[in-house]
Structure formats: C-alpha cells, structure tokens
Design brief:
It is built from six helices and seven strands; from the N terminus they run αβββααβααββαβ. Helices cover 32% and strands 11% of the residues.
Length: 220
Amino acid sequence: EAYDNRYVLKEQRFGVERRVVHEVPVIDVAPVINNGTLADRKRVAAEIRRACIDIGFFYMRGHGIALKELESLERIGKAFFELPLEEKMKTDAGKSAAHRGFIRSGGVEPDKATDKYPDIKERYMMSRDAMPGEEAGKRVGTSQWPDEATAPGFATFMRAHMASRVALAQKLMRGFALSLDLHESYFDDVYARPSATLALNYYPHISAERLSRTQWSFRS
C-alpha cells in the first residue's frame, strides 16, 4: 500500500504545515541580551517564534560571547584531548556519580560495549558551578577538573565560559517569554538556577582501516 504523504506536509490536529527548509534563519538577539528598546525586543521575539514554529531551531548572532573566547574554547579543549590517555583518565567520568569528566571512545565502560556501534569520539562532560546557597547536584557543581600542571588554564577557562553561557541562556528566556506573548520576566524564577551541562566532543585522527563496518568518525 502506498504511503499517504499528506501527513508529511500537514499535521492534522494543529494544522502545522511543513515546508522545505532552504536556509537556517540567523537571528540577531542583541536587543534581548543588551536590554534594547521594547519594540526591538518584541521584534526579536517574533523572529524567534517564527523560527521555532517553522523550523525548530536557528543560529544566533549578537549573543555577546566573543569570537576570541570561542577560539580559546576550541584551543584549550583540543590541548586537553591531545594529552596521553593515562592523563585524561585521571578525570574518568566513570568515577563520577554524575558522569562528569573524561569519556573515552566507546563510552564510560567500553569493555562492556563490545556489542554496540560506537561513535569514535572522546568527550569531556562538565556542569556549572553551584551558586551561593545552592547544593551540588547531578548537573550542578559536579565537574572533575584536570590538574593545572597537566592542563594549564582548562578549569579556570571552562568554569568562566559556562557561567557566561548560563547568563546568556537566562537572558534568552526573556525573548522566549515575549515570543509566547508572556511578560518577559515570566521564566525568571524557573531559570534562576538552571541545570547546565557543557560537553566537548573530540574526534581523533583514525584511519579508515581501523574502523569496523558498524563504527563511524568525522576525521580520518
């Protein structure tokens, strides 16, 4: 029986019609981040609403995180992943109840995952610092950090970078509130202490001959 593709184009209950995506919208969120005029904040909120309904995601500019900081993120992260495995394993996520820290290729327990189809990457999982008066939890204040001598500047940079991302997310929620025709402070209390996880993904150079049929990687 032929597949009825009417349901690919239009969801019957809500009348949401899918369209071919030719480009991902780029939204300048600076008015929301920098507390611009109400008219400009509402304009950005309308763009966010349209992107979320029509596509489900968008690129941002004007977010306030400098290109230099993002370049430092890549450089410092790469320097950690290029350390010898035994050094990286000192922050093995398997030692963390919250699974924060280094995760080698194959996952936290690669020897038990021989029947899986692993993505050949390494990861480093971090959570934001706990705020004053806040208890550590699974996604708050549970990071493992490499020694400063082993990975100079890694912990200091990542902790500050996560704090800037949390602040950005909190401000963005005001734009999302406006996009829903709510007062822009509607989500303030909910996101006063948001959970936050930052994951660094690293794909080491690996020859195609070393990959099995059920494995994949982005670099060779």
